[in-house]
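Each field is listed here:
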Amino acid sequence: MALQVEKGRPAQNEGRSKKELAVYDYLDKQGIAYERVDHPEAHTMEDCIPIEEALGAKVFKNLFLTNSKHSYYYLLLMPGDKPFKTKELSAQLGVSRLSFAEPEEMEEVLGCTPGSSSIFGLIHDKEDLVELLVDKDLMKEEYLCAHPCHNIATLKVKTSDLFGKFLKSTKHYKTEVQLKGEE
């Protein structure tokens, strides 16, 4: 199946979720350019391989984590081929007992469902509950790809726009971490 790359938002809103459309509205309002491919639901990094090939950029893992009290959240962006080790990240942050947040928390805080968590969900974090963590290896890429809060499309955005214009407009900042994927 060949995926077709489009510039900007879809011409038709039919079949698009409100959360997905909100991402397009937000990026357009901020003047952030993006390319898009529509595709069947992508639940795994393996599902994203043809998307990466079509867009010519990396799709990264978006992991939504929480502290033991479920009072603070972390959105970790990391290369899709790097293993995630909770202990390694916890040590770097000085936070004990990190775990994956519940699906209901992801929906409430980021406006995303499992399989569609995304940096673009930060537009829904009005209470500033999420700290963005970015693996330093992603900073080497000219472009990065992420779902627009729905895993039926993927957007390709300049890394400088994502961590510049986009983060500034959402009033978030990034904390860089260096993950090795080892114990």
Summary: The longest strand covers residues 58-66. The chain has one domain: 5-173. Helices lie at 18-30, 49-55, 86-93, 103-110, 159-170. The chain has a mean pLDDT of 91.
